[in-house]
UniProtKB/TrEMBL annotation, chain A:
GO terms for cellular component: plasma membrane. It holds the Pfam family BPD_transp_2. It comes from Streptomyces luteolifulvus. Residues 328-378 are annotated as: Disordered. Signal peptide: none annotated. The keyword Membrane applies. This is Branched-chain amino acid ABC transporter permease. The lineage of its organism: Bacteria, Bacillati, Actinomycetota, Actinomycetes, Kitasatosporales. It is a multi-pass membrane protein. Its main location: membrane.
Amino acid sequence: MSTITGILRADGARAGRTRAALIALAATVAVVGAPFYFAPFQVFQLTMVLVYAVALAGLNLLVGHGGQISLGHGAFFAAGAYTAAVMLDRFDTGHLATLPVAAAGCFLLGLGFGVPALRLRGLYLALVTLSFAVFLPLLLKRLEPWTGGSMGLTVDKPQPPAWSGLAEDQWLYFLVLAVTAFALLVARNLLRSRVGRALLAVRDHESAAEVMGVRLSLHKTLAFAWSGMFAGVAGCLYTWVIGFVSPDSFSFVLSITLLAGLVVGGLASLYGPLLGAAFVMYVPNVAQDLSEAAPGVVFGLLIIAVMYVAPAGLAGLAGRIGSAAARRLPRTRTPDGTHTARPTPSGTSATSADPTPPEAEVQAQAEPVGAPPRTEEE
Amino acid sequence: MSAVTELLQQTVEGVGAGAVYASLALALVLIHRFTGIVNFAQGELAMLSTYVAWQLMASGMPFWLALPVTLAVSFVGGMLVERVVIRPVEGAPELTLVIVTVGLFIFVNAAAGLIWSFTVKDFPQPFPDGGIDLAGVSVGWSTLGIIGVVAAVMGLLYLLFQHTSVGLVMRAVAANPTSARLSGIRVGRVLMLGWGLAATVGAVSGVLVAPLLFLEPNMMGGVLIYAFAAATLGGFDSPVGAVVGGLLVGIAETLAGAYVDVVGADLKIGVPLVIILVVLLVRPQGLFGRAAVERA
């Protein structure tokens, strides 16, 4: 019998890998196929989810992994958006040229912000970043010759090249998808590098990290810079997608919404920014139908609720359900071993009498989601 | 009007604005002393209290009767917020506390919009028009009234903390919660009391500022930033500092708006930002605060 379970287990491992590949393939097909399936407005919403995901990935670097609080990331977002808009409007550069400039500009801005952040901790950093976020829209209004004041700037959206045969919304979706995928990849690799490990060490114990040879000042400043850069890139994408910027789009509510989205999505998780971005995009949309104030009520309650019951956010919640299911599975195995815990790929054990498959299914899907501290082989 | 009178006039107006910032800063400092939390929702709670006052007056109550009722409601409300929202995360990391109070901020703001809508409402001015003339400087009754009310609140708080047994217990909890608990003080109740007091003081600032700014759910957003600057300047653990800081911030804001061309009327909000940054970089504990000694 032990050989049977052994075979089953090896089979299960192989099946697990196949399943992961299948899920990845299905996800890719879904992501690439989406703009051809949905209506233009829905494609636009998906595009905005991707834009927010980039900003949240940056905020996650700083807040989730760096342990520093920023209530002002909307300011970096605004800086990126305005960099792109001013370049397009005044200098008539191509769209692609705006991306590196917005990224570099916000990186430098973040670096500048990181220096006072060295001396400020926790609450104080939150105060300074919040007041910066309140200040920036007013500054943008003042710089009217460049920014168009409170009227804002209207710029051209990137047009699809003739050979692609795509509509404008589809082309935008793919452009943003490419940038987002690249940005998320960079964020992930950054976290698995020296820099990422140093950040985690600083977050968990500053003094210990310093003793281990991590240069606190360098890494805390860099965290701000990287994080600002991602938010700036997201802002640049925002300008591409919307084709219009105005100071009122970037009030401090945006900063707070970004933080809220990240917290609900899941701090320090790889998939948290994506979930959070969907949350930021769709919850106000759904709640808006009820009343103008409903999104805020839902947001506020959810943030507090998430802090109480699931500090790791939606991503963490999914992971927790997964591990809870995993803990319970061995117990459901019957003594004769005919019901193995993991459903076999052929589905023989998935009889109607078997209570395990639903849980196991949850686990199989949730496993990659709730994976913040894991260092699995690639 | 000579330049000196002009300067004095601006200063008086600054003091009037500063008194409002001082009372909200006082609320922030009270909560910070008791719980170590900077309450980002303080301004919104004050806004909610102001709506309560408005609702009472809209139903026919005179101002000077509506005010004590509002303060009582705010006191109970503040205690409830501590018990329901803050207690479950007591002792949590700073990030959690900030996020919870930000969540409260968003919720209260939206809830007020839901109940009373986002349209601007007129809030009656409790003080008579006009004012007195001091050597060419006109001081409005409303300015004097605001200063008087804030001074009265300060005085009452001083009496409460220094000359009553409740005040003694509260100071004990602020100084050392663990020892206070060991000597038989119900720390949880004292914390509720502290939040209630802070909400009451905040309500005073809301009611005072509403006639100047018009009542709407986002009314206190700007005031909160000034109050942060005031509390930072005075020191987050010093009530006296909060008041002095508030007055200084008010004066600095008015003078910068009037005399510094780059600032003007629209960029005044940059003044508290600069004050916060400079204070935190040069003297992080503020003018009256004690520097925290930290053992890693």
